[in-house]
Amino acid sequence: MTSLPTSTDKKLGLVIDLDICVGCHACAVNCKEWNTSGHSAPLTDKNPYGGDPAGVWFNRIHTFEVRDEDAGSRTVHFPKSCLHCEAAPCVTVCPTGASYKREEDGIVLVNADTCIGCKLCSWACPYGAREYDESVGVMKKCTLCIDKIYNETLRPESRVPACVSTCPAGARHFGDLGDPDSEVSKLSAARGGYALMPEQDCKPVNRYLPPRPRKKAAADLGAPDRLQAKDGDLDGAGFLARLVDRVLSR
Amino acid sequence: MHPAKSVIFFTTASGAGYGLLIWFALFSLLNRIPADRDFALVVLGVSFALVTAGLLSSTAHLGHPERAWRALSQWRTSWLSREGVAAILAYLPIFAYFYVWFMGVDDPDAVAAIAASAIVLALITVYCTAMIYASLKTIRAWYNRYTVIGYLIFSLMTGAVLLTFFAHLRQFDMRDEIAAAALLCLGLGLMVKQAYWRFLQASSSVSDIGTATGLGGPGRTTLLEGPHTESNYLLDEMGYRIARKHADKLRIYASVLGFVLPIALIVGAVFLSGWSEVLCALFAVAFCCTGILLERWLFFAEARHVVTLYYGEAHA
């Protein structure tokens, strides 16, 4: 049924820290690795070893340059996958009921057995979260690793989406954003987590943490004080250094 | 947006079929359709063929056409589903109409009821088709009031041009009346399309690279590196940009072929007689069809999707 649930018990989603992400693409690779044998398997590649390869990916890392008059330019790596919207337009436009949002945890999924491959959901999604698999003629998407997060054969610390468990920088966090006391909600609140394209009225669950203000001075980066130039301040300098300073200061 | 041939043919052909049905039913409600069984069966047959070919063509772009019946289930939320349901309901008056003319049923009330339901259901179906596009907030070129007005007027327009041809072919009394209706629709259609193109030139989506990334608006934020070097599904489907370069020229071609030439030719058909009259009406149909196909191609190819903001566009 493509009517959205009026409310969901949980709002499982991701908090992505744009300050920490180093743009290594490991999350995209591990996403592909896990999901190509998971719920929506396989994540088909087309012409993978040819001159024009293409394929199904649920997670992609874009890199933006942000210019700032005062702080100068900076590079921001920007991973993007399904945001598991509360008002998911990809679900309501689906003519068959193959697209649905789970009442228990808010995860948006596609039933590959009833999807007719009309692609309308991919037109309705502002974020490009939908991936059409030409080889099987159905739409696929991020499942928030539904086959991993509830997998009791895995160790508890592994029951997070593949993109989260693999991130070497710890830039990705998984949890219930519907619970204001959850770790991810607190993290998002503390760091000013924001939604993408709120004006599209999809109410995305995922949050992005903005890059922290740029640090320019060495001390801001945590470098020891002694690395800084200390002209005019001879505290702690040895006899020879004082003598040289005196001679040169004449 | 990628202009899929199957969807262009679907929207234009079924639009023309429903338009033809609407005008035929309207003229029969007004008692202006002559009691000519062959004429009625040909007009209804063409209408049926256009609608059916369009609907079949729309299933051609599906990944699983054999599951198309499932699309009838979600009419509560999905305009695509509503379109399917409406299209199937609209077949009922078409079949009833066939029966009436084939069997020579002489029951004015029943025929009037069939005609009225044909008009209503055909209009609803075209409206649902338009709403599939008009309800997508992600695409500024569709998410506006011109989409529904356009689909309705272009459906009525192509239908009227078709019926004008058949009426002139058979030299019926009502040929000037349907020609007048066609001229009115062509004029209105041209105005709607020009207004739409002016609107498109002047407006852009509420979303831009700033809202898409949260990092800073156009000019401040630019794409440094895409996610990969090659294209992907999103770019092939939503990032189509071939038309933009030639958009101005194609708009002129669409206006001339779809509207201006048919207007001139139908005026010619009204004032001429004999073979030149029929030829004028026939060429009006041919040009109008070509023009409306071009118009529909532009409708898709010119439409920009907000997902392109993640791939280097500053505005969508």
Which properties best describe this structure?
heterodimer, A: alpha+beta, three-stranded mixed sheet, 11 strands, elongated, B: 316 residues, mainly alpha, Formate dehydrogenase/DMSO reductase fold
Structure, described:
The complex is a heterodimer of chains A (250) and B (316). By secondary structure, chain A is an alpha+beta fold. Chain A has 2 domains: 12-209, 2-Layer Sandwich (Alpha-Beta Plaits), CATH 3.30.70.20; 219-249, no CATH class. Chain A has helices spanning 26-35, 89-92, 120-124, 146-149, 162-166, 183-191, 239-249; strands at 12-17, 45-46, 54-55, 60-66, 74-80, 99-101, 108-110, 130-133, 138-141, 172-176, 207-209. A 3-stranded mixed beta sheet of chain A has the order 10-1-11. In chain A, strands 2-3 form a two-stranded antiparallel ribbon. The radius of gyration of chain A is 24 Å and the shape is elongated. The mean pLDDT of chain A is 92. With 316 residues, chain B is mainly alpha-helical. Chain B has one domain (5-311): Up-down Bundle (Formate dehydrogenase/DMSO reductase fold), CATH 1.20.1630.10. Chain B is 69% helix and 2% strand. Chain B has helices spanning 5-29, 37-60, 79-103, 108-134, 145-169, 175-202, 209-213, 233-238, 247-271, 275-301; one strand at residues 221-225. In chain B, α1 packs across α5 (145-169), α2 (37-60) runs antiparallel to α3 and α3 packs antiparallel against α4. Chain B is globular. Chain B starts with a helix and ends in a 15-residue tail after the last helix. In chain B, 49% of the residues are buried. The model of chain B has no long low-confidence stretch (mean pLDDT 95). At the A-B interface, β3, β4, β5, α2 and α3 of A face α3, α7, β1 and α8 of B.
